[in-house]
Amino acid sequence: MTTTMTRTQREEFLADTRIAVLSVASDDHRPPLTVPVFYGYQPGGEITFFTGTEGRRARKTRLIERAKVLSICVQREEPPFQYVTVEGTLAGIERPPSAEQLRNVIRRYVPEDVARQWVEEEIGNPAGTLVLFRVRPDRWLSMDAGEDMK
């Protein structure tokens, strides 16, 4: 049976280590920009993620700063199928982010020693090309296909 998740269920689901798909309004009459991102989240808090300000990542940064609203969707791709989508408002921008802010996101996806090395290299980069976005969840959409889908 398909149901909507409770607040606790959806916040715990979002707090699990998953890849988010970010969507933000585009420009030049193009469809919304939709890309995967690593993110951080603790129940009741803001969603955080970082990206760059150079090359292809610069467009994402520019669009987020202009729109000030975005959607993030995370999903479980095997039965029981589940997803949580958050529509949110930009709550803050850290330019450059602190080492701790970067570690809090990246350590969810890679071993601690790899995260530490990656952050040290990025913090030591004099170009300062990273920006961390903080997003306040405003609206939640969720679905849990239930145990009967297994």
Mind explaining what this structure looks like?
It contains four helices and six strands, in the order αβββαββααβ. The protein starts with 6 loop residues before the first helix and ends in a 6-residue tail after the last strand. It is 27% helix and 35% strand. The mean pLDDT is 91. Helix 3 packs antiparallel against helix 4. By secondary structure, the protein is of the alpha+beta class. Strand 1 (20-24) and strand 2 (33-37) form a beta hairpin. It has one domain (7-149): Pnp Oxidase, Chain A (Roll). The longest helix has 12 residues, at 56-67. GO terms for molecular function: coenzyme F420 binding; oxidoreductase activity, acting on the CH-CH group of donors. InterPro entries: F420H2_bilvrd_red/Heme_oxyg, Pyridox_Oxase-rel, Split_barrel_FMN-bd. One of its GO terms (cellular component) is cytosol.
Task: Give the SSE order as H and E letters.
Answer: HEEEHEEHHE
Mean pLDDT: 91
Range of helix content: 25-40%
> Low-confidence parts, pLDDT < 50 over ≥5 residues?
none
Question: Domains counted in the coordinates: how many?
Answer: 1
The number of helices is 4
Strand content: 25-35%
As an assembly, this protein is single chain
Largest beta sheet, briefly? 6 strands, antiparallel
**Rg on CA atoms, Å:** 16 Å
CATH fourth-tier homologous superfamily: Electron Transport, Fmn-binding Protein, Chain A
Q: Tell how many strands the DSSP assignment holds.
A: 6
Separation, N- and C-terminal Cα atoms = 11 Å
CATH fold name: Pnp Oxidase, Chain A
Q: Tell me the strand order in the biggest sheet.
A: 2-1-4-5-6-3
- Helix-and-strand structural type: alpha+beta
CATH architecture: Roll
